[in-house]
């Protein structure tokens, strides 16, 4: 009995706090037109939240160029770097290696398999990323979204050589277009890995 | 099967009050009296107590299972929260943009007994459908999960384009979700994809959420109109044309947002199941207390009756 009472009180207090937090969110930049339209259509149901309600707000573009670049590097299974201030990051764009410094022009870049390095003072961290996107914003924020990435010291060079040989052999023996494309991707990834390890 | 039986039992228990229970006992005890047995039978109450105890065992076990599953999936859901943020930061978040072909992707669970999360996402999807239907517009549903399918098929069967179930049979990873996103993108024509899911907040609360993803053409149109971030100020690297990059970008965005949505929903499901099972095992406990009281009372009454009979019989012999 006491236990249930405690839980009831607990749940009521959480509801109360939620109401307060939504009060706050009304000031947040949500899509007002959507909420109004929603209230006309379904007055009995609270309008659903949108991603904007959960995102960490970002600062406006400063007038002078900041000394550091704020980097977010995310993977599906983890946020590798979250709002980390770094000096420079070099990403493997499809057009070639691209260095990003604070105050870089806003850019959307598609990534190819290759070496990504994060420079922080004298410290350089190297990752091998499979593919993804990099966004550079005007306020010296950079977002890098990759499907898979590994720190370079986790990669075994013997396995890379083996994989490269295997996919090269597959490419020469491929008969259909699909097989050829798959083998080509394998060769590309492994040769990029190889050059990242040697270079 | 067991679940259906359990639910039926539960309903019966809610309705039957101890008084009614005793009155339902009476006829059978009268029968037994007429057969020459003096004591009031407690067999029925004992049986009921046993079944309530068994149900409590089941719900307790289900709660444990949900708790352990929740712990595993909560970590993954929280880790995947960074994934969609870059896209929202870049493209903004404008669910009010008016487009012709709306596709509502409803994410739900395959199994029930998890509180209101499935009906919440169905309700929100229905309202979104209504919001986005009009004279020259067409809206469609894509349904993920058995439970939302069962609810939506009742009244909007003709609007359902695609249903996908048994998401959680295998381990939920990015590869699987992107294959699923690919399946949706290949089979459905869309201008805007509106994903409805329950975002996990805590074990007792989840927030119905909708994420909007536009097709590349709409992104281009709206960014020129200035509604959708200021995409024009961004330089585009790689690819042959801007539209090609935008296509890749929106498809990647869809798979990333889907991945997070599916994980968040799975997490909310386990949380809701845990609290539902917790309250039902508590209810079973209360019911057991009431039944025990009834049982003891009946037993005592029969003892008292027997004693009175013996004493009065003895005093009749003496006198």
What composes the largest sheet of chain A?
A: 5 strands, mixed
Low-confidence stretches of chain B: 12-36
* Helix content bin of chain B: 55-70%
How many E strands of chain B? 6
Radius of gyration of chain A, whole Å: 24 Å
Q: Please state the overall shape of chain A, judged from the principal axes of the Cα atoms.
A: globular
- Cα-to-Cα separation, first versus last residue of chain B: 63 Å
Q: Output the helix-strand order of chain B.
A: HHHHEHEHEHEEHEH
Identify the strand order in the major beta sheet of chain A.
Answer: 2-1-9-8-5
Q: Indicate the overall shape of chain B.
A: elongated
Mean pLDDT of chain B, to the nearest integer, reads 85
- Uncertain regions spanning at least 5 consecutive residues of chain A: 13-28
**What pair of chains forms the biggest interface?**
A-B, 54 and 52 residues
Write down how many β-strands of chain A occur, each being a DSSP E stretch of 2 or more residues: 10
Helical percentage of chain A? 25-40%
Q: Count the helices of chain B. How many?
A: 9
């Amino acid at each position: 009995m006491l236990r249930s009472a405690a839980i009831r009180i607990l749940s009521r207090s959480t509801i109360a706090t939620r109401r307060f937090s939504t009060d706050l969110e009304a000031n947040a930049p949500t899509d007002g037109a959507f909420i109004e339209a929603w209230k006309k259509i379904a007055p009995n149901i609270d309008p659903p939240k949108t991603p904007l309600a959960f995102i960490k707000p970002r600062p406006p573009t400063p007038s002078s160029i900041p000394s550091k670049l704020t980097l977010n590097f995310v993977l599906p299974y983890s946020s590798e770097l979250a709002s980390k201030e770094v000096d420079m990051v070099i990403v493997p764009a499809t057009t070639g290696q691209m260095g990003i410094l604070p105050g870089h022009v806003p850019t959307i870049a598609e990534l190819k398999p290759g070496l990504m390095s994060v420079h922080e003072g004298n410290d350089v961290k190297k990752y091998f990323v499979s593919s993804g996107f990099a966004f550079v914003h005007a306020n010296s924020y950079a977002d890098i979204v990759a499907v898979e990435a590994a720190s370079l010291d986790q990669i075994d060079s013997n396995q890379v050589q083996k994989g490269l040989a295997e996919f090269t052999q597959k490419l020469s023996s491929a008969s259909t277009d699909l097989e050829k494309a798959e083998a080509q991707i394998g060769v590309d990834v492994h040769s990029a890995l190889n050059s990242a390890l040697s270079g | 099967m067991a679940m259906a039986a359990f639910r039926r039992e539960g309903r019966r228990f809610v309705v039957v009050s101890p008084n009614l229970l005793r009155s339902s006992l009476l006829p059978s005890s009268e029968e037994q009296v007429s057969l020459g047995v003096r004591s009031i039978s407690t067999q029925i109450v004992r049986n009921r107590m046993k079944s309530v105890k068994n149900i409590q065992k089941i719900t307790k076990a289900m709660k444990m299972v949900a708790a352990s599953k929740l712990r595993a999936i909560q970590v993954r859901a929280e880790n995947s929260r960074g994934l969609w943020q870059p896209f929202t930061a870049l493209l903004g978040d404008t669910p009010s943009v008016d487009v012709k072909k709306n596709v509502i992707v409803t994410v739900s669970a395959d199994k029930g007994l998890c509180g209101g999360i499935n009906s919440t996402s169905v309700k929100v999807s229905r309202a979104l459908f209504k919001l986005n239907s009009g004279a020259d517009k067409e809206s469609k549903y894509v349904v993920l999960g058995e439970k939302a399918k069962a609810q939506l098929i009742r009244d909007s069967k003709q609007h359902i384009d695609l249903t996908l179930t048994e998401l959680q049979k295998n381990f939920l990873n990015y590869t699987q979700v992107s294959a699923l996103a690919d399946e949706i993108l290949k089979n459905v024509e869309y201008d805007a994809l509106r994903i409805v899911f329950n975002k996990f907040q805590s074990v007792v609360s989840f927030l119905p959420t909708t994420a909007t993803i536009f097709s590349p053409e709409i992104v281009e149109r709206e960014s020129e109109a200035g509604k959708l971030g200021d995409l024009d100020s961004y330089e585009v690297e790689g690819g042959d044309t801007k539209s090609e990059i935008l296509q890749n970008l929106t498809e990647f965005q869809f798979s990333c947002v889907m991945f997070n949505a599916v994980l968040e929903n799975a997490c909310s499901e386990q949380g809701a199941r845990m609290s539902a099972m917790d309250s039902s095992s508590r209810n079973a406990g209360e019911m057991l207390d009431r039944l025990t009281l009834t049982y003891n009372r009946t037993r005592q009454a029969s003892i008292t009756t027997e004693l009175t009979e013996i004493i009065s019989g003895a005093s009749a012999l003496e006198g």
